[in-house]
Amino acid sequence: MKALVPVELIERKLLLIRGKKVMLDADLAGLYGVEVKQLKRQVRRNIGRFPADFMIQLSKEEYESLRRHFGALKRGEHSKYMPYAFTEQGVAMLSCVLNSERAVKVNIEIMRAFVRLRQMLASNAELACKLDALEKKYDMQFKVVFDAIRQLMTPPETKKKKIRREEEK
User: Fold this and answer.
1) Do β-strands 20-24 and 55-57 pair in parallel, antiparallel, or remain unpaired?
2) Which tens digit of pLDDT belongs to each residue from 12-34?
3) Which helix (H) or strand (E) holds 86?
4) Within a domain: residue 73?
5) Which of 31, 71, 137, 148 is deepest in the core (most CB within 10 A)?
6) Contact at 8 Å (CB) between 128 and 22?
7) CATH number (domain holding residue 118)
8) Does 98 map to a domain?
């Protein structure tokens, strides 16, 4: 079964803001096939479904940073209000308030993208732990090797013979 929205497109829309993986309201509206103002209207009508850990409103500094660094927000394409950013739980809640067949189908694809991202992060964390363990293990082994090399490089102490003068002989 072919996905309604390619997972790669969804993954490109995921951003890290305030230490959370989120998607912006404009990106979600595009994926859901609705206008941003319609999405925001539905959110405002159902604001009780969107606590702080489901949705955040970007600060002016965050908004400017996104525009500068990622080109995520183009001037003139967004409302005068700061964008909303939705966490995975907030995205799940959006499909309920938008109440369209497309929203449900797209939401399933977005949830799969979040799961895939978590799996990738978990496997990277496991790999990092294994690498740390190997590094510690080999650091100790190489210390022994380096100590041995240093010992080999140090010339052995030899007893110096005194040179006697001819007169002393």
Assistant:
1) unpaired
2) 888 888 988 898 999 999 888 88
3) strand 84-86
4) yes
5) 31
6) no
7) 3.10.260
8) yes
Per-residue tokens: 150? 């240093």
Range of 97's domain?
Answer: 7-124
What are the start-end ranges of the H helices in the chain?
7-13, 25-32, 36-45, 60-69, 88-98, 101-153
Q: Is residue 137 part of a domain?
A: no
Place of tokens 């940073």: 65
pLDDT at residue 47, rounded to an integer = 93
Q: For the whole model, what pTM was predicted?
A: 0.62
**How far is 97 from 35, CA to CA, in rounded Å?**
14
Compute and round to an integer the Cα radius of gyration of the chain: 31
Mean pLDDT, rounded, of the chain: 77
Rounded to whole angstroms, what are the CA distances from 128 to 115, 120, 162? Answer: 20, 12, 60
* Counted domains in the chain: 1
